[in-house]
Amino acid sequence: MSPDDLALVDRFLDMMAAEAGASKHTLAAYRNDLRQAAEAIGPLGGAGADDVSRLGVVWASLAPSTVGRRSAALRRFFGFLVDEGLRGDDPSGALPRPRFERPLPRILDEDEVKRIFEAAEDRAASGEPAAVRNLALLELLYGSGLRASELVSLPRRAIRPGQPFLMVLGKGSKERLVPISTRADAVVQAWLGHVPDGASWLFPSAGKHISRVRLFQIVRQMAADAGISPDRVSPHVLRHAFATHLLSGGADLRVLQSLLGHADIATTQIYTHVDSARLVELVNARHPLATRGR
Fold it and tell me: Which of 205, 232, 259 is the endpoint of a domain?
């Protein structure tokens, strides 16, 4: 990337951090996408529509989701340059616009979740610290719908005895209230007895907190202990299960949006597909034609 492009990208990322509240991970992803685009077509600051259109060929072998993400990064970057008066035209109209369907979330049924809990509870009954910790992680993933990054970075005193909720700093540095069940509270309090007094995190590891990778490994092992294929289970799958089973139990979609921390309800609406059996049952039981004989 040319020195001029580096300066422009730095200014753009400073804006994203200050005005949009973008996280470090988001900023790193934007920088990487812009760098790869510059390697493909040359300097971005002076790129025209013809230059940008070449990306369709360069990205032909990439997944539609990757193309969409890279195109979005460039659109935002060029829009920033125009807004700041750093260029007079916006060539982003020539960017490829892949058409793809949002994948349906992988889910676990309630019986499978029950089996994972039973196996985790049996292990935690031994009092082994790692087993108690793992059960606390499971309770918060499935019982509160936390994202992996939100869970591993919880402060040591985030959950106080008898407090039915906690405040989570989610994506875009947005705060939201997350419910804490009585059973999750009890397990967390049991785990706190094993947390060193000087630890800053609820789930400490090597001076910091456990990583998302480690959480992923723990969750997969708990699935294997319950006789469920580890390939089907991850922290995000348990978050999906939290949302799906709440919706199945009658939760309002707007409430679910708030609990999950989704900025756009369209993201939350993807969970409505999993409740098809309940909808069919509802139509058969409540629709006026259901009570009419042939």
Answer: 232
